[in-house]
Amino acid sequence: MNVIPAKIAGVKNITITTPTPYGIKNNIILATAGICGVNNVFTIGGAQAIASLAYGTKTIKKVDKIVGPGNFYVNYAKKKVFGDVGIDMIAGPSEILILCDKYINSDYIVMDLFSQAEHDKLSKCFLISLNEKYIDNIIKKIKKKIKFMLRKKIIKNSLNKNSLIIKANNLNEICKIINIISPEHLEICLKNSNKILNNIYNAGAIFLGKFSPEVLGDYCAGPSHVLPTSGNAKFSSCLGIYDFLKFSSIIDFSKKGLKKVFKYTYNSAFKEGLQCHALSIKYRNYNV
């Protein structure tokens, strides 16, 4: 989800970092990196990986831009090094907002909430519905199913401390709430999931209908699954090819063209009190 957009954009040297808990290397990650044409793989993670990439070490060369999601420490590190190196966005901890109604099997919704909550104890889960009985049913199933989850401690922490269930009054109110929260992942699980789509302006990725769970985005759907979190969808989009492209302005005036803009440019510089700016264009206008 990071390498392919970079490759398409023409990035020539790609480095990835990946932690190796207990010293165990993940062969799937290594194989995937090889297939995608990654140049360097380093077994390091967390804030220390960000620092190493940003400033370089004896082993790791300094890079121009760092992209990808991470936990609180990774994102704080990305904020700190921004300016010394480029970054994509603040992506993480993970979050989901699910809008659902009684026409959707509540088991689907419970597992979709769990799937995000199990990422991290700081993950955020939001549930919105118009139907109070349906909400009560979901709460009961959460309590019943959570004890069977392998990562139940993380899920409980996320749901108890960082999550919210909202009973809304109408769809207009729901749209306002969604656009304020600006979730990383938005599931719209309604009988007619397209009904409110045009009124949603702030969301990283939108999953429509009961057969489009967010987990598809984690592994196989969408251009990338590096998405803005913490309300950043108000001004950011998912990672894409454009994150690996940059542009330069090219200015090429003729003698005639310079004379056309001389008066405006000279007067603007003079009024701003920048004498040398004014003289720079004045010399050319009268001496070319």
TrEMBL record:
The keyword Zinc applies. It comes from the Eukaryota. GO terms for biological process: L-histidine biosynthetic process. Coiled coil: none annotated. Its cofactor is Zn(2+). Belongs to the histidinol dehydrogenase family. One of its GO terms (molecular function) is NAD binding. It comes from Clastoptera arizonana. This is Histidinol dehydrogenase. One of its GO terms (cellular component) is cytosol. Pfam families: Histidinol_dh.
